Amino acid sequence: MDDNGDPRERNFSAEDVMKKKDQIFEDILKMLVAELNVSPTDITSDLTIRDDLNFDSLQLYEFVIDLEEAYDIRLPDDLLDNVRTIADVVDLVYDLSIDPKA
């Protein structure tokens, strides 16, 4: 029986994935608290970037640069177009950090 799946995916349990995503959320939370000068309790994963956080284009650009530097990834514009919430950001950063070609 051949298993041609990605070996990185086989090594992660659901618990490992959740821990990694929780860490990414915590990192994003720290960035947003510093940028927006808000309480960490004000940031939840279902907040929308543009509507709830009221990011202007410059803030969004700086946020993307911070994420790219923190995780040594590239966030392509075509993928960013689909990002609406903080949870979407977490998922995208997670996917790109385990598979930069995603």
Overview of the molecule:
The protein is mainly alpha-helical. The chain has one domain: ACP-like (Non-ribosomal Peptide Synthetase Peptidyl Carrier Protein, Chain A, Orthogonal Bundle), CATH 1.10.1200. 58% of the residues lie in helices and 0% in strands. It is built from five helices and no strands. The mean pLDDT is 86.
Q: Do you know the CATH architecture?
A: Orthogonal Bundle
CATH class descriptor? Mainly Alpha
**How many domain units?**
1
Kindly state the mean pLDDT as a whole number? 86
Indicate the low-confidence ranges by residue numbers: none
Quote the CATH topology. Answer: Non-ribosomal Peptide Synthetase Peptidyl Carrier Protein, Chain A
User: Any idea what the shape is?
Assistant: globular
Task: State the helix count.
Answer: 5
Provide the helix percentage.
55-70%
What is the percentage of strand-forming residues?
under 5%
* SSE sequence, one letter per element: HHHHH
Structural class: mainly alpha
Compute the separation of the termini in Å: 26 Å
Radius of gyration from CA coordinates: 15 Å
* CATH superfamily membership: ACP-like
- What does the main sheet amount to? none
The number of strands is 0
